[in-house]
Structures are given as structure tokens and as C-alpha cells.
Inverse folding.
């Protein structure tokens, strides 16, 4: 099992930047593919991006060019750097983990993930 705790959310002006962190418990973090998702009020949860065990990444079109996902296995942490933030980026951001046999696989379907954090809210003011 793994437990996930997100941090770094807050209120930021449009055009600003935030870096979200997701700390995972356990000693096998390197065996997990990770994902970042977000859910705005009244909307379904959607993928922001994902990262494989080998740090291959995938980004949703809505954040491509503005988001960077990275991981530090020594710190059991995955990061989401968001730049040029827009009001439509306002949401609760969640990280998710899925133990993966495949080094280069990342997962875009939220139903694939077994473990979720509690979320961190991000508000982008115009």
C-alpha cells in the first residue's frame, strides 16, 4: 500500500505559477506510475498528466506546454509545475499512484489508479 499527501495548492493570479507536490509513503515508490488529476466544481475529474516509473510523461491538451510533471524517487515525491495559470485551471488537484510492472508505462484513465491523495485546492484569480 501507499499513502499520498498533496501540498502546494493555494490562490494565485492568472499568469502565475504553482508547484504542487505529492509525497508518498512506503519504500517502493519507484515501482509506481503516478498521475495528476483535477476536479473543478460541478465537473468530472480529469487528467492533467501522468509519469511513468522511468519518467516518461504525458499531458492533457489543456495543459500541454504549461505543465511539467517530474518525480524524485529518493524523496518519494512527484511534482506538478504549472505555469501561465488560467482561471479555468481552478480545481482540486489530486495525485494518484498505480503499481506498474512496466518501466515506461503511464496511465491516463483514472480508473486505473488504486491510490489517491486527499487533494489540494488551486484557485486562479483573474
Amino acid at each position: 500500500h501507499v499513502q499520498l499527501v498533496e501540498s502546494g495548492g493555494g490562490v494565485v493570479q492568472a499568469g502565475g505559477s504553482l508547484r504542487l507536490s505529492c509525497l508518498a509513503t512506503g519504500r517502493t515508490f519507484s515501482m509506481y506510475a503516478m498521475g495528476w488529476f483535477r476536479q473543478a466544481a460541478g465537473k468530472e475529474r480529469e487528467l492533467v498528466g501522468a509519469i511513468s516509473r522511468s519518467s516518461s510523461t504525458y499531458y492533457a491538451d489543456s495543459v500541454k506546454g504549461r505543465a511539467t510533471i517530474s518525480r524524485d524517487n529518493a524523496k518519494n515525491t512527484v511534482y506538478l509545475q504549472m505555469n501561465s495559470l488560467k482561471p479555468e485551471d481552478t480545481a482540486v488537484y489530486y495525485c494518484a499512484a498505480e503499481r506498474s510492472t512496466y518501466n515506461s508505462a503511464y496511465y491516463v484513465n483514472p480508473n486505473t489508479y488504486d491510490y489517491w491523495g486527499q487533494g489540494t485546492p488551486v484557485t486562479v484569480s483573474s
